Amino acid sequence: AQSVTQPDIHITVSEGASLELRCNYSYGATPYLFWYVQSPGQGLQLLLKYFSGDTLVQGIKGFEAEFKRSQSSFNLRKPSVHWSDAAEYFCAVGSSGGSYIPTFGRGTSLIVHP
Amino acid sequence: NAGVTQTPKFQVLKTGQSMTLQCAQDMNHNSMYWYRQDPGMGLRLIYYSASEGTTDKGEVPNGYNVSRLNKREFSLRLESAAPSQTSVYFCAMAAGPHHEQYFGPGTRLTVT
């Protein structure tokens, strides 16, 4: 069975500092991996995805993530955080065949200090 | 949240009352989902529908029913609401070759 672990419930950074949110997954084959962001009172929005090829993927809002098969990780990064990045971030893993059922991590809440 | 609409945005029910949460997508995709979101629990799948006329249980289906009468709409029904069903409910659809999900804005439900 596939699973996703986001080890950090909360992360606090200062505006302008760099950010890394951790995500570890368990999946038998090459997974589809996603990061979503949820602003307060909103639905989830896709930030970026990995499905094959280049292991460093770029997303919206200046975010990037790196797929590391050997570590079963897909960490999200941003070089300089803005106050508007304060939100909940979810990592998800999915499969390519059959009935598509993704698995979401429990989320990491990002707090940005001015 | 373009492409997926949900109604209502907020709802308060008394224990035992029933209601239907509505979801519609305008992107002609097959797969649709209902999730609930609770603090510290992430997203948990209630039901999903791989295509029009088909539905399957997810992780937490008890107390809910769904209906996928056409490709566009996927509704979630609570027959007899319980306080444990107080949550935020999200509808989503899967699109593209990699099945990325597009979410509606959510329905915040309180059962007293």
Any key phrases for this structure?
heterodimer; A: mainly beta; 6-stranded mixed beta sheet; 4-stranded antiparallel beta sheet; B: about 110 residues
- Note the total helix count of chain B: 0
- Main sheet summary of chain A: 6 strands, mixed
Q: Summarize the helix and strand pattern of chain A as letters.
A: EEEEEEEEEEEE
The overall strand count of chain A is: 12
DSSP, total strands of chain B: 11
Proportion of helical residues of chain B: under 10%
Average pLDDT over all residues of chain A: 92
Query: What is the averaged pLDDT score of chain B?
Result: 93
**What oligomeric state do the depicted chains represent?**
heterodimer
Q: Give the ordered list of helices and strands of chain B.
A: EEEEEEEEEEE
The biggest sheet of chain B, with number of strands, parallel, antiparallel or mixed sense and barrel status, is:
7 strands, mixed
Sheet-strand content of chain A, in percent, reads over 45%
| Pair with the biggest interface | A-B, 24 and 25 residues
Taking the alpha carbons of the first and last residues of chain B, their distance comes to 29 Å
Given helix and strand content, the structural type of chain A is mainly beta
Calculate Rg of chain B over CA atoms: 13 Å
Distance between the termini of chain A: 41 Å
> Which percent range fits the helix content of chain A?
under 10%
How many helical elements of chain A? 0
Q: Name the overall outline of chain B.
A: globular
Spans of at least 5 consecutive residues with low confidence of chain A: none
